[in-house]
Each structure stands twice: as C-alpha cells, then as structure tokens.
Automatic annotation (TrEMBL):
Alphabetized UniProt keyword annotations: Membrane, Transmembrane, Transmembrane helix
All residue ranges annotated as the Oxidoreductase molybdopterin-binding domain in the record: 242-394
Domain of life: Bacteria
Transmembrane segments: 12-35, 72-91, 98-116, 128-146, 167-189
A GO BP annotation: sulfur compound metabolic process
Gene Ontology MF terms in the entry: heme binding; molybdopterin cofactor binding; sulfite oxidase activity
InterPro entries: Ig_E-set (IPR014756), OxRdtase_Mopterin-bd_dom (IPR000572), OxRdtase_Mopterin-bd_sf (IPR036374)
UniProt keyword Ribosomal protein, yes or no: no
Pfam assignment, any one: Oxidored_molyb
Protein name: Molybdopterin-binding oxidoreductase
Length: 517
C-alpha cells in the first residue's frame, strides 16, 4: 500500500534511471567489442548524428574540436542519454509506466540507429544484438529498482512509508557491477581483428621505389614541419567514430561498372601487382588557411590506371565512384586516375608500413592534386567506373563540389602565434603546396612592408609540398605580423580573397603575430 503523494527521495529515482541505462549500454558495449564489425549503441547513435548533422555544424565542430570532434560527440551522446534516463527514473517514482515508455523509446532509438549504421560490417542481425541487450537489461533493471523504491507503510505509521533500502542497495550494486563488467570487457577483452591482421602483413619491396628525398628538401628552421609526416603525426579526417575493421583475410576489391571485364582482387592479388612508391602531399578540404590538415607521406601502391586498363574502361565514363567498408562514397574524375603524369594509387603502404588502421588499412586510394574527400577513400572495397551524372557522393550530397582540385596554399610554421624572437635571430619558415603544378616562389611580408622572396627548399616533386625559410635581418623590436603567399609554376599567385572551406576549399593568406624583443 503506497501512501498518496509520497515517494522515495527524488535522487533514488534519478540514480535508478542513470544506473539502469548505463548498465545496459555498458554491457552492450562490451558485447560489441567482442564482435568484429558491430558498433556499440552509443556509436550507432553518434554515427547517425554525424550523417544527419548539417554541414555548418560539422564545420563548427571541426573548428572547435579539431580531430577531437569524435570523443566530444561520444561524450555528448552519453551525457544526453544519462540525463534522459535520470529524468525518466525520477518520473518513474510516481509514474513507472512513463519511465518504461521513455526507456522503450531510447531502446527503439538504439535499434533503429543500429539498423541504419553504415559503419557496421557484420550481418544486420548481429548488428542489432547490442541494441537488444541494452533494451532488455535497462528495462529489466529499471523495473527491479523501481519496485524496491515502492513505499511500504512503516509499522505503527500509516501516513508516511519507507522503501526497502536493502533491496534498493542490492539492486544498485548489481547495476554497478554490470557497468564495471561492461567497461572491463570493452577495455581489456575487446577484439580488433584488423589490428591482428595488420601485424601479420609483410609488404613486398616496390617494383619502382621512390627516389631519395633531396637533401635540401627540409627547411633548416627549428619548428618547421618534417618534410615527411610520420604516420603518427599524419592528420586524420573521416566520419568513422570507430575505425572500421577490415582484416585482409576475406578482403576483396571489386572493380566494375562501365568496364569490359569486372575484376575482383584479394589483398594478395594486389600485392602481386606492380607496386610503385610515390611521395604525395594529401590535403583536406576542411583545412582552413594556415590549418593542420595537410601531410606528406611515401605511399606504396598499384597505379589505378594499370587496373583500369586491365578492366577496360568503356567510352562515356567520366567518373569513378569508390566505396569504403564503412559505406563512405567518394567520386573522382576518371581523367585524374588515368592521367599518365600523375600516379593515382590504390595504396597498401604508408611510410614503409602497411597502412595504419586509421589511415585506411588494408587498402585506400591516394590521388595527387585532389582533396581527400574526392579521392582518398580509406578502407576501400569497391571501385565503380561510372558518370558524374549518375551518382552523388557523400559530401556532394552535403553541398560540397563534386570535383575539387587542391587549391594552392602556403603556411607559416614558425613563428607560432605570439612567439618571441631575439632581435638577431628572427628565422621563420613553413610549407607551401600546389600539387600537380608545383611551387615556383614564396614571399613574405612583415606588417605592411614590401613582399620579400624567401629561400625555397629543394623541390621533391610537384605533388609534394615545398618548404621555405627566411631571416629578418633588420628586425625591429615590438609586435609584428608575418604574412606569406605562394606562386605556382603557372605564374599564378595565391589570392588574398578569403574563401571558406565549403564548397571547394579555403583561400587567403596566412598571417601570424609575433614579437621581437
Ligand atoms: N572511408 C573514408 N575515407 C575517407 C574519408 C572518410 O570519411 N571515410 N575522408 C576523406 C577525407 S575528407 C580526407 S581529407 C582523407 C584523409 O585521410 P587521412 O585521414 O589518412 O589523412 O580521407 C578521405 N577518405
Ligand atoms: Mo577531407
């Protein structure tokens, strides 16, 4: 018998909701970690959020959080869920049915987002299991906990009642144990089939190795980027909350569409092809002027044009649509892939190693001169020869241009913002790139002074960035601004017009404030 208008304290309800949801999600996350290609419920909700997020918000997230946008999104989803669950539990003290309803709705959200999750590579049925576990565990715990909170009349007291504290405590401990178990399984027992597979890969030597990097390619100024970006430092941009797991066992690349002969190549088949090594500077369209989303690596791979020639491209095709294991679609002009003067690669190696998992293991595409979102498909599984008129790629649907050559740009690495130099040692430097065309000239100016030519480091190739350095000999004390601009080998100088990253890449000059003391 429950006395009217009285319930257990509000916080017991909140705790009930939070613990029930957290235990359900934690156990499901542990389970997902044991299965290959099955996202956890939080990831599936996050993945859906990524695909539904308007472009402007994505740009904001990248600007605000950089490559941390993923942990921030995961935390956002988790906090929202726990708040909703806490409120549901609190309401449940008076109206248990409403609480069950809210939990059922959250479970339904988990189920739908799992069903729609394009990053899942396991079977649909398996993909739904974590969401079902979440639903069952959370609802079950909610029911158990809410029952322990029902008020029973105290002996000799018919006005107030009390709930069964021992039973409540037991249930709280049970739910907490579920959370700990899920966490431990996720952290220590989680499988990564792709990591295991990668460890076993031995790449053959290149049939055509890259030439040595020219000795003078690295600008001699402390703090300027390394000419070759290490795999660890290489920027990462993708929509994958969790890196897709694509073991080489069972891997196959399908080449089809407007071709005479469809090809299906296993990872071993690819390694038997003529592998060439090329240094290529990759750039993201999301790179703001002066931004970090650019990197230069040595890639090992099969020239795409070799495979296209074997497949036999039919007339009328003007595009290649590539698809990744996580269902990212990317459209690339066919001409860029068949161009004899630019080695577009189906890459398997990066800086002497198999591709890192986050950079597309086991196979990705790399095309000199095109922004990543129109060329650099990671976890590549499907290549279709087609026409631009016949499809829209992921980012094209979201307002970015279908074709996007990398825009010439230059960046100041030294000084960093508000760095202070002694007057006799104002040495600055950075990088400039104009893939496919090459950098001819870089100039800097201090404040509103005249443009001055810098020292250009040696060129490696037109497809790699070029470093530069400059010394300000008659430096004056005080605060200054350094600005840089580049000119390519066609004689075009970087425009000062500021363009935003959408729809086809930023423009403008990079400036940095510094001090001379
Ligand atoms: N599967 C997949 N491939 C992808 C992307 C992605 O989101 N998913 N992002 C592209 C973009 S926008 C860029 S700039 C490059 C970045 O490659 P990196 O992370 O190895 O630097 O990958 C491209 N390939
Ligand atoms: Mo990108």
């Amino acid at each position: 018998m429950q006395s009217k208008g009285r319930t257990a304290p509000w916080w017991t309800g909140v705790l009930t909701g939070v613990l029930s949801a957290a235990a359900g999600v934690a156990l499901a996350t542990g389970l997902a970690a044991l299965l290959t290609g099955v996202p956890s419920p939080i990831e599936s909700v996050g993945n859906r959020a990524i695909d539904l997020t308007p472009r402007s918000l994505k740009e904001l997230a990248i600007r605000q959080f950089g490559t941390n946008d993923k942990p921030v999104l995961i935390a956002g989803v988790a906090v929202t869920l726990l708040v909703a669950a806490g409120v549901a539990g609190w309401i449940g003290l008076r109206r248990p049915r409403v609480a069950y309803g809210i939990f059922a709705a959250l479970g339904l959200l988990a189920l739908t987002t799992a069903a729609l999750d394009r990053t899942a590579t396991a079977s649909r049925t398996l993909t739904l299991v974590p969401a079902l576990v979440t639903l069952a565990v959370s609802l079950g715990l909610l029911a158990v906990l809410l029952r322990t909170l029902e008020l029973a009349p105290r002996a000799g007291d018919d006005v107030s009642g009390s709930f069964d504290r021992r039973a409540f405590l037991r249930a709280v401990l049970g739910a907490s144990a579920g959370i700990v178990l899920g966490g431990v399984v996720t952290k220590y027992l989680g499988k990564n089939a792709a990591a295991d597979s990668r460890r076993a890969v031995r790449l053959p030597a290149a049939a055509e190795a890259a030439s040595a990097v020219p000795a003078g390619a690295q600008a001699d100024v402390d703090g300027v980027s390394r000419f070759i970006t290490s795999n660890r430092d290489f920027y990462r941009i993708d929509t994958a909350l969790r890196v897709p797991q694509v073991p080489v066992e069972g891997y196959s690349l399908r080449i089809h569409g407007m071709v005479d002969r469809e090809l299906n190549l296993s990872f071993r088949d690819l390694l038997k092809e003529r592998l060439v090594e090329r240094r290529i500077t990759l750039t993201c369209v999301s790179n703001e002027v002066g931004g970090p989303y650019v990197g230069n690596a040595t890639w090992l791979g099969v020239p795409v044009r070799d495979l296209l020639a074997r497949a036999g491209v039919q007339s009328g095709a003007d595009a290649v649509k590539t698809t990744s294991a996580d269902d990212m679609t990317i459209g690339t002009p066919l001409s860029a892939l068949t161009d004899e003067n630019r080695d577009a690669l189906i890459a398997v190696g990066m800086n002497g190693e198999p591709l890192p998992l986050a950079h597309g293991f086991p196979v990705r595409m790399v095309v000199p001169g095109l922004y990543g979102y129109v060329s650099a498909t990671k976890w590549l599984v499907d290549l279709e020869v087609t026409r631009f008129a016949d499809f829209k790629a992921y980012w094209t649907k979201r307002g970015y241009d279908a074709e996007a050559p990398i825009k010439m740009s230059s960046r100041i690495d030294v000084p960093t913002s508000f760095q202070t130099f002694p007057r006799d040692a104002v040495r600055v430097g950075g990088v400039a790139w104009a893939q496919n065309t090459g950098i001819e000239r870089v100039e800097v100016k201090v404040d509103d002074g005249a443009w001055q030519d810098v020292d250009l480091a040696d060129e490696d190739s037109v497809d790699t960035w070029r470093q530069w350095s400059w010394q300000w000999d008659d430096a004056t004390e005080g605060s200054h601004q350094l600005t840089v601009r580049a000119t390519d080998k066609n004689g075009t100088t970087q425009t000062s017009d500021r363009a935003r990253i959408a729809p086809d890449g930023s423009t403008g000059w990079h400036s940095v404030q510094f001090r001379v003391a």
